[in-house]
Design goal:
CATH topology of chain A: Immunoglobulin-like
Number of domains of chain A: 1
Shape of chain B: globular
Strand content of chain A: over 45%
CATH class of chain A: Mainly Beta
CATH topology of chain B: Immunoglobulin-like
Order of helices and strands of chain B: EEEEEEEEEEEE
CATH class of chain B: Mainly Beta
CATH architecture of chain A: Sandwich
Shape of chain A: globular
Number of helices of chain A: 0
Structural class of chain B: mainly beta
Largest sheet of chain B: 6 strands, mixed
Order of helices and strands of chain A: EEEEEEEEEEE
Number of domains of chain B: 1
Radius of gyration of chain B: 14 Å
Distance between the termini of chain A: 38 Å
Oligomer: heterodimer
Number of strands of chain B: 12
Helix content of chain B: under 10%
CATH superfamily of chain B: Immunoglobulins
Strand content of chain B: over 45%
Largest interface: A-B, 23 and 19 residues
């Protein structure tokens, strides 16, 4: 079965510091991967998605970037965090090549920028 | 642009009763998918049920069923025999066929009273 991991679970960082959130998927090959952000009391906003290694599409221009160094690894980064980067970050996967067109989410990372 | 509207910010139901959560969407596409996700206090997004727009039959997953009214662009979720563990935020989501992007509504907070 497929599982998706995210770490860290919780992070508190000062303004101006760098960020690296990691997501890995097990049990599937060549998945599509996604990063979402959820602000307090709101729905999810798609930030980035990737259909393959090194292929990143950005949905919202912002202070963040994403990379996919390996097939099942997706990283969300920032060089300098802003207060507005605080939120709950969710990674998700799908695999349309295997008929899995719905998206499955990881446990999330709660980021607080102070 | 596609939009998803959940008009009920909060709902409550008595344990063992039935509740219906509303969702409407706006699209000019004919190929699309609709989803309901549950987000419990742990904040992990859990897929509850999915519906392909080309299917006329309403999807059902155990105690969860949908009422898909394509012409009215309505996609409501019915929870039967409500349980305390059903208490969560529920998000309706839309995905255009061939697109990677899930568009979420703002959510409905469901409270289950014992």
């Amino acid at each position: 079965s497929q599982t998706i991991h995210q770490w860290p679970a919780t992070l508190v960082q000062p303004v101006g510091s760098p960020l690296s959130l990691e997501c890995t998927v097990e049990g599937t090959s060549n998945p599509n991967l996604y990063w979402y952000r959820q602000a307090a009391g709101r729905g999810l906003q798609l930030l980035f998605y990737s259909v393959g290694i090194g292929q990143i599409s950005s949905e919202v221009p912002q202070n963040l970037s994403a990379s996919r160094p390996q097939d099942r690894q997706f990283i969300l980064s920032s060089k300098k965090l802003l207060l507005s980067d605080s939120g709950f970050y969710l990674c998700a996967w799908s695999n349309m090549g295997q008929g899995t067109w719905e998206q499955y989410f990881g446990p999330g990372t709660r980021l607080t920028v102070t | 642009a596609q939009t998803v509207t959940q008009s009920q910010p909060e709902m409550s139901v008595q344990e063992a009763e039935t509740v219906t959560l509303s969702c409407t969407y706006d699209t000019s596409e004919s190929d699309y998918y609709l989803f309901w996700y549950k987000q419990p206090p742990s904040r992990q997004m859990i897929l509850v049920i999915r519906q392909e727009a080309y299917k006329q039959q309403n999807a059902t997953e155990n105690r969860f069923s949908v009422n898909f009214q394509k012409a009215a662009k309505s996609f409501s979720l019915k929870i039967s025999d409500s349980q305390l563990g059903d208490a969560a935020m529920y998000f309706c989501a839309y995905k255009k066929g061939g697109s990677e992007k899930l568009v979420f509504g703002k959510g409905t907070k469901l409270t289950v009273n014992p």
